[in-house]
TrEMBL record:
<feature type="transmembrane region" description="Helical">
    <location>
        <begin position="13"/>
        <end position="32"/>
    </location>
</feature>
<dbReference type="InterPro" id="IPR036515">
    <property type="entry name" value="Transposase_17_sf"/>
</dbReference>
<dbReference type="InterPro" id="IPR052715">
    <property type="entry name" value="RAYT_transposase"/>
</dbReference>
<protein>
    <submittedName>
        <fullName>Transposase</fullName>
    </submittedName>
</protein>
<keyword id="KW-0812">Transmembrane</keyword>
<keyword id="KW-1133">Transmembrane helix</keyword>
<dbReference type="InterPro" id="IPR002686">
    <property type="entry name" value="Transposase_17"/>
</dbReference>
<dbReference type="Pfam" id="PF01797">
    <property type="entry name" value="Y1_Tnp"/>
</dbReference>
<keyword id="KW-0472">Membrane</keyword>
<feature type="domain" description="Transposase IS200-like">
    <location>
        <begin position="9"/>
        <end position="115"/>
    </location>
</feature>
Length: 185
């Protein structure tokens, strides 16, 4: 088993990226982004997640996270991905307005069939690509800037704080959509 992309040390702060299978643009819909935000908030309040920065793009997510003492980050990530995928898939299946419903369910079903860990559907790719951040502030700033500039680089907004589904506003102006654990000032 590979150890390259593992959340080894529970005391570390990690930069984590994970994507929807097939890089499907699920998060173009606010409903699905909001479900993910609810899941992040729940894990923060109930599962020991420390959420330092985040951005939700159309088909992937970047987080800077750690865990409270006594909690294991791999378990938090497992629960976050499991619950959010369950809820988002449920919404897609039950939707009467989702124009991409059949196409997305077909792709999620196909991905699930190809993975022995799933029964029917697979929503998230199984990898998280965690990178342990060195405790010096420059590395934190570098990753926070990278994460917050994702929507700018994608041509969605001109300024990081203009993108609603990101913690950039927390670092620049104040309170964003969900509570976070600031790393800097």
């Amino acid at each position: 088993m590979s150890t390259k992309y593992k959340l080894h040390d529970p005391t570390e702060i990690y930069f984590v990226s994970f994507a929807v299978v097939g890089w499907i643009d699920v998060f173009t819909r606010a409903l699905y982004r909001d479900i993910l935000l609810e899941s992040l908030s729940y894990c923060r309040k109930e599962k020991g997640l420390k959420l330092h920065a985040w951005v939700i793009m159309s088909n992937h997510v970047h987080l800077i996270i750690s865990s409270k003492e006594g909690y294991l980050l791999p378990n938090i990530m497992r629960d976050l991905k499991k619950y959010s995928s369950f809820r988002i898939l449920k919404e897609i299946k039950e939707s009467i307005t989702e124009s991409r419903k059949e196409w997305m369910l077909y792709l999620f079903s196909k991905a699930g069939q190809q993975n022995g860990n799933n029964k029917n559907f697979q929503f998230w790719r199984q990898d998280n690509h965690p990178i342990a951040l060195d405790p010096n502030l420059n590395m934190f700033d570098e990753r926070i800037n990278y994460l917050h500039n994702n929507p700018v680089e994608a041509g969605i907004v001109a300024s990081p704080a203009d993108y609603l589904y990101s913690s950039a506003i927390d670092y620049e102006e104040g309170k964003g959509l969900i509570e976070i654990d600031l790393l800097i000032g």
